[in-house]
C-alpha cells in the first residue's frame, strides 16, 4: 500500500530513541521529510546519523526539552523557516516515574503534568497554524495503554495520560471542520529503554531479575511477548498518513491484546 507520505513534512518529538525513533525511521523510509528531537544532543546526533543512512533521507534534528514552555514555538519557527510548512505532528515525550500515591509530592505531580500533558498541548497549539495550511494535516499523540487498563505502580502515568486522551478526542471534534485529523496511540509493553528501566524497578522490588520480570509481563499478553518498537511505528505511520484520511478521534491500543476490555 502506498501511504502517500512522499515529501510530507513530519515532526516527531522525543525521537532520538525508542518508539519515537522507530516512527521517525519508518517515516523516512516512506519518503517523508522528518524533524527529530531529543534532549540529549549526543544521542540526537547519533539518531540523525542512523536515519541519514537511508539514501533518500531528509532529516533535521532540533535539540530541546518538550517540558520547556518555550520549546514548542522554537521548533515550529525553525520548521517554518526551513520548510515553510508542516503536514504531520507526532507528540511524544518520556513517561513520568513509577510509584504509588505516597511516593510523590505536589511538585512531582506538577512536573509530571508539565511533561506528560502540557507538552502535547503546547506543541499542538504552536503547530496548528502550519497544519491548517496543509492539504493532509494530521496529529498523533503518544499516550499509553494504561489509560484503558491502569498499570500497577504507575499512578502518575495512569492519571495524567488520561487527560491527554481526553484532549485528543476533544480536538478530533474541534479541528475536524478544518480538516485536521487527531488520533492517539496507546502503546503497551514494548522493548524500549523506558520499559527496561521499569522492569529494573520491579526486579529490585521483587528480588528477581529484569529478564524474569519481562517474561512475566510477556505472559500476561495473549501473544505471550513484549512488543517491538517497529510494530508500534507501523501503526503510527499509517494513522498519520494520507492513506488513513477518514480516521480521526481514534485511541488505538497497540499492546498485543493485553487490555481485555471490550472498548
Characterization of this structure:
This protein is α/β, with parallel strands linked by helices. It folds into two domains: 206 residues, NAD(P)-binding Rossmann-like Domain (Rossmann fold, 3-Layer(aba) Sandwich); 36 residues, no CATH class. Strands 3-2-1-4-5-6-7 form a seven-stranded parallel β-sheet, sandwiched between helices. α1 crosses α8, α3 runs parallel beside α4 and α6 crosses α7. The model has no long low-confidence stretch (mean pLDDT 96). One of its GO terms (molecular function) is oxidoreductase activity. Pfam families: adh_short_C2.
Q: Compute the number of helices.
A: 8
Structural class assignment: alpha/beta
Strand element count: 7
CATH topology of the largest domain: Rossmann fold
What's the gist of this structure?
The chain has 263 residues and is of the alpha/beta class.
Q: How do the strands and helices of this protein lay out in sequence?
A:
Layout (H helix, E strand, L loop, with lengths): L8 E4 L5 H12 L3 E6 L2 H11 L6 E6 L7 H13 L4 E4 L14 H27 L5 E5 L12 H21 L5 E7 L5 H14 L3 H10 L9 H12 L10 E4 L9
Parallel strand pairs: 1-2, 1-4, 2-3, 4-5, 5-6, 6-7
Helix pairs in contact: 1-8, 3-4, 4-5, 6-7
